[in-house]
Amino acid sequence: MTTNHNLRQPLIPPPEKAEKTDIERLCIDDMLQKYCGEFGKWQMKHFVLTCMAWALEAFHTMVMIFADKQPEFTCEPGFMECDVCGGEPGSWRWEGGGGVVSTVAEWGLVCGEKYKVGLVQALFFGGCMIGAGIFGHLSDSKLGRKGSLIVVCILNAIFGLLTSLSPNYLTYVVLRILTGFSTGGVGLCAFVLATEPVGPSKRGMAGMSTFYFFSGGIALLSGIAYIFQTWRSLYIASSVPSIIFVLVIILFISESPRWYLIRGQNDNAMKIMRAIAVTNGKYLPENVCVARDEEVNDNDQKSIEDRSKEVITGSIVDALKSPLTRIRLFLVVGINFTCSIVYYGLSLNVVNLETNLYINVLVNSVAEIPAYFLSAVLIDRFGRKPLGVGTQWFSGIFCLAGSFMGSKGIWKVVRMACGVWGIFGMAATYNLLFIYAMELFPTVVRNAALGCATQAAQLGAILAPFVVVLGGGLPFMIFGVCGIIGGFLTFYLPETLNKPLYDTMNGMVDGESEA
């Protein structure tokens, strides 16, 4: 039988070649909003795990309040009166375990040597200032956000444990400087890594929530310090969590897709974006690809392919060269400086309030939590700028009021209340400044700019211990003036509410000119 080969042919011939689907190029913010979800399960897990590093920073920073405290002393039998500074030798002794309680008791950092307490605390923040600049640059360049976070946490654990073995004051100072160096990069890297994968409409709330972990760390530290009463055991107890974070938690944290994008690793950026979509129960079409700001509306395919493989780098010099970012950087530096003097000054000033140290630290840390919640609720309603001005002036007014209160009877309690309200307002500002500064600069220089702002904050923190040792109402007066000045500086910053996170300097210039 003859087979009719024509029967094998379809009635309608197929097209010679299937039509190629058009590629849809989106920046990360648009992709999160349109396909992946702005804050779903993926971002929640990533955010919580990354922000645990903030508690570690609180441990290594605020441990000085307990380790460097001056213990109570009592008169030896046979002496009716005694004094640490002018008393007869052998007429007094430290309470609660003698010299092992704190560095002050062990190395005699009292009277003429009291300045050494403020000195080691100031040098710690000096180390933070250097570390913030270095790790801010490294997290924008070679190490990335996650890589930098791993390095600083490892260094924190090592230096913290070594500090507990310090044989003398000089060794203690060196190790605290080194701990400050690594601590300066912890919050910086954790904040950017936690918030960069969050969509624009949810970023304000997420960014304002990072400091819950810092305050929680301080509150937890007050409990740890109550259990571990000697300063050496306290340094060990506050350093072990950094080891746990590196060995366990960091394994479940992803690198920032924005960093991959500016480093020319678009495939890795897309892997994370697809993981976000899948975990959030969303669908990301195959024809959608991530692109930098200036590539989104570019129709030149060859130009896009060439630029997508290009590694975009930036430094603080680039931020200073651009008129748009230069003035922003100067203002952010000034605001961070004044804010830090107030925040760390009020935190350290608890030693002058003559109340229970553990309870006072706990109350201050708890007072910060509603400040974060309130500012998180208000940030997207009123914007970054009005909230920044209001919270700094709120803190400044209460600090000025506290400077006129006495230190006896009921006035001592009133001054403590003024300090709590002052730290309430400045805690909200300190939190706001991170999200505000993050939105003021593009990805390519974001961590470098934040690092510079953090350096300014650490410079303020360096001065804070010296303000605290002045005693009386003068520290409150200085804190109040700084709060008012910071509020005035904030007036000159632009509002960033509902503005996109730009990737490159050119993308920001083009975007701001169109706005």
From TrEMBL:
GO terms for molecular function: transmembrane transporter activity. PROSITE patterns: MFS, SUGAR_TRANSPORT_1, SUGAR_TRANSPORT_2. Its main location: membrane. It is a multi-pass membrane protein. It comes from the Eukaryota. The chain crosses the membrane at residues 117-136, 148-167, 173-194, 206-228, 234-253, 329-346, 358-379, 386-407, 413-436, 474-493. It is found in: Membrane. Residues 46-498 form the Major facilitator superfamily (MFS) profile domain. GO terms for cellular component: membrane. It catalyses: phosphate(in) + H(+)(in) = phosphate(out) + H(+)(out). The keyword Cytoplasm does not apply. InterPro entries: MFS_dom (IPR020846), MFS_sugar_transport-like (IPR005828), MFS_trans_sf (IPR036259), Sugar_transporter_CS (IPR005829). Keywords: Membrane, Transmembrane, Transmembrane helix, Transport. The keyword Transmembrane applies. PANTHER family: SOLUTE CARRIER FAMILY 22 MEMBER. Belongs to the major facilitator superfamily. Phosphate:H(+) symporter (TC 2.A.1.9) family. This is Organic cation/carnitine transporter4. It comes from Artemisia annua (Sweet wormwood). The lineage of its organism: Eukaryota, Viridiplantae, Streptophyta, Embryophyta, Tracheophyta.
